[in-house]
Amino acid sequence: MSLVATAGLLYSATVSIPKPRTASEDVGLKSHHVKGGFQNPWDSWKTFTFTSILYAFLWRRLTGESKAPDTKPPTVPVQKPQFLPDRNTPKLRATWLGHACYYVEFPGGLRVLFDPVFEDRCSPLSWLGPKRYTEMPCKIEDIPFVDAVVISHNHYDHLSYPTIKQLKERHPNCHFFAPLGNKKWFSESGISNMTELDWWEERELTLSPTNQSQAVTKLEDTKATGSDIVARIGCLPCQHTSNRGLLDRSKSLWGSWSVESNGQKVYFAGDTGYRAVPELPKGVDDYGPEYKFPHCPAFAQVGALRGPFHLGLIPIGAYDPRFFMSPMHADPHDAVNIFKDTKCQKALGMHWGTWVLTEEDVLEPPKKLREALKRNGIAETGVFDVCDIGASLEF
Ligand SMILES: [Zn+2]
């Protein structure tokens, strides 16, 4: 049990194992577990040889085939987020804080932060590596409540040591969730309020009000009801990989997540691919009728067994060149299929607009998203949208 600081009221947090729900039959097989780590157990995944990686990076650069996207402003608009000052939330509310970071305010009071990275560079080094081309919309101290921090995997654009450290200092008793194999990193970072989960595992997080009040904020939670806040948080499959150094590839698991509280269900797709597309001539449509590349079956299982979701947070960027990026990063066409497979009613795009990780133009993902929606007979706005960085949308 731990205490969660909130405006006006302190909540004690407990994490328990809920009654299991139906999971996919893969659960028993554990086909994603391999000796010393994990794998993507599907035909839709592809691993690359050293030569092909060398080709992707060096040869394409030397021959001028690779592109460096133009990040000259203006690119993606940034606004200062308006977080709710208390836990009264009439509607589910999501605020994009850049890249894969979303802050979600649930009716009932739960506050969840997904994949927070509040650094300028997503890299092990503060002076080298991709640098933000859009501003950070706010600071960690601007976020009033954090009950749970949910991490998709350990890549630097999704898991940041300085950010996690600051979150723990600011919200000493919030609970961290990450896929299997990440516990050690959190323990070494001084965090014990942490649960690691395998795909299809779930936990119940209960926040119970204590009779203590909080001294760390000036905000008044005048309408706090004093009842328990309960959430069901589950780790789910996705197609990706992990590593923070050169020798730990796929040693910790990656995952997507479901968070359910007060009747609202959110699906956080994390960082994921959908299909592995081979190298095709320029301008060829890899979703053309002549191609039938296998896609990751996990999303339809998620939809069938955990869906429908009120809101999906789905990656739409970092996808070019396709022959190299497609196994691990969805493009907008893949993203719309993930949206459909997982049975999300609404969605917001993420994993774009922040760091240049790949070769597509920085403003291309939302354009391609509209094309993909149109192709699938879905309205181009109002269903699967993109928003400004720092914007909050209600559902
Ligand atoms: Zn990643």
TrEMBL record:
Q: Name one GO molecular function term.
A: N-acylphosphatidylethanolamine-specific phospholipase D activity
Database matches in Pfam families: Lactamase_B_2
Binding sites annotated in the UniProt record for an N-acyl-1,2-diacyl-sn-glycero-3-phosphoethanolamine: Y156, H329
One of the GO biological process terms: N-acylethanolamine metabolic process
Matching InterPro entries, A to Z?
Metallo-B-lactamas, NAPE-PLD, RibonucZ/Hydroxyglut_hydro
Residues of the Metallo-beta-lactamase domain: 111-352
| SUPFAM superfamilies hit by this protein | Metallo-hydrolase/oxidoreductase
The organism's place on the tree of life at top rank: Eukaryota
GO cellular component terms, A-Z:
cytoplasm
Protein name as catalogued: Metallo-beta-lactamase domain-containing protein
Please name the source species: Polytolypa hystricis (strain UAMH7299)
